[in-house]
Design brief:
Layout: H1 15-36, H2 40-68, H3 73-97, H4 106-134
This protein binds fe (ii) ion.
Length: about 140
Amino acid sequence: MATICWKSCYEIGVGTFDAEHQNLVRLVNALYEGIRQHQGELLAQEVLDELILYTDKHFQHEEQYMEKYNYPAEARLHHQQEHQGLREQVLAYRQRLQSDPQNLLLPELFRFLRQWVLDHIVETDMQFGAFLRQHSVYDCGPPVL
Ligand SMILES: [Fe+2]
């Protein structure tokens, strides 16, 4: 298990969303640091709450630009379903953590988030980024940070 080291191949080519993705990675890495430093219990709830708020804002931001530039319906639906899936999974983990005094769940949660974030960025967000770039959109306003 290791933190996510940001690489240029994770960039989707739209500065606004690349900055937001780096922030998302920072939050996932913060969870790992909490586990490593054995502050897991305190930190996990805090980081998860921040992650829930942040993913909501970030997903809304992406979805707003899908609408604005008429991202094709099928791709949009698939993308939104992935966002919704993550929201549900994170809320379920948050619930489970409340009855996990030994924090046995934390490494699993970190692995899940690490995998989800990277898979979503390099596949689903990358396709959306390519669409925006095809429409010469490289900036979607200030990043939500
Ligand atoms: Fe996305």
